[in-house]
Design a protein that fits this description.
Blueprint (H helix, E strand, L loop, with lengths): L2 H36 L7 H14 L6 H19 L3 E5 L5 H10 L4 E5 L2 H9 L5 E8 L3 E2 L1 H8 L4 E7 L7 E6 L9 E10 L4 H11 L4 E8 L6 E9 L2 H6 L2 H6 L4 E9 L5
Parallel strand pairs: 1-2, 1-3
Antiparallel strand pairs: 3-4, 3-6, 5-6, 7-9, 7-10, 8-9
Helix pairs in contact: 1-3
């Protein structure tokens, strides 16, 4: 028997064992789904996802690269989610749109996707429980921050639970929105929305608690307050999870100089290859 034939026999045996283990894993995933559904827990757990992928990368001795491990497990986790529940992901645009492609990259090919006419409609499907999560655009290099998404965040009770960087240079960003908050992953950011009066010095005063409490800020965007032209909504991303930031008293301090303070959700900081 040739060396090639012997290696193929070995591959076949390994594939049989891998398939057995995958089915065993799937059986456990179904049991987890039963428990989650019984307790009305979120099916998608971005904190668990990030911790699992990080652990797998650290435990791997190669030759698989981290990006390959993530791609393989993306489909394994997608199949497991589909066994736990008939998962529906809403995203704006037709099939193949940037949001749909980002959703596929995040949730894999085993869950169900529903495309909507616009971003507001995707929010509406998740809010009405016709979809489990939504994937909506936040920012792209050509148009910057997406006004439709920012406006929808102001008026919704839904929460951001994950971020998807979706281009080679990671400048196009998408958000995963859902009805449940994301648990701390150990490396999170929180989007905070501040409604600030349009008067000199108001923004400086509004932002001062971040400086005093040594909270690092990242991206920054603005939208006019829809019901009051005398106010502006400021969107910023702060290091840390919403629960931890609340414990420091940050929100109460922000409220002293803002008309409204609204944490829009926390999400694990994405890992790159």
């Amino acid at each position: 028997m040739s060396d090639l034939a012997q290696l193929r026999i070995k591959i076949d045996a390994l594939d049989t064992e891998i398939l057995r283990l995958l089915n065993e894993r799937a059986t456990v995933a179904k049991e987890i789904g039963v428990i989650k559904n019984r307790a009305s827990l979120a099916i998608y757990s971005p904190d668990r996802e990030m911790k699992l992928l990080k652990s797998l990368e650290e435990r791997s001795n190669g030759p698989l690269k981290p990006a390959s491990i993530r791609a393989i497990y993306r489909e394994i986790m997608s199949a497991a989610l589909a066994l736990e529940k008939d998962i529906v992901i809403a995203c704006p645009g037709p099939s193949g749109s940037p949001a749909h492609q980002a959703a596929l990259a995040k949730f894999g090919s085993s869950v169900r996707y529903v495309t909507t006419s616009d971003t507001a409609a995707a929010f509406a499907l998740v809010a009405s429980e016709q979809a489990d999560c939504g994937v909506v655009p936040l920012e792209d290099p050509e148009h910057g921050f997406q006004s439709a998404t920012l406006d929808a965040l102001v008026g919704t009770t839904l929460l951001i639970c994950a971020e998807i960087p979706a281009s080679a240079d990671h400048t196009s960003r998408f958000l995963v929105i859902g009805r449940h908050p994301s648990a701390p992953s150990g490396h999170d950011r929180t989007m905070i929305m501040l409604e600030v009066e349009n008067k000199p010095g108001a923004l400086v005063s509004a932002l001062d608690p971040f400086r005093k409490m040594d909270v690092n800020l990242h991206h920054f965007a603005t939208r006019p307050a829809p019901a009051d032209s005398r106010s502006t909504w400021f969107f910023m991303e702060a290091d840390g999870h919403a629960a931890d930031l609340e414990k420091t008293g940050l929100y109460s301090e922000l409220s002293k100089n803002c008309r409204s303070v609204k944490p829009a959700g926390s999400y694990p900081v994405p890992r790159f290859p």
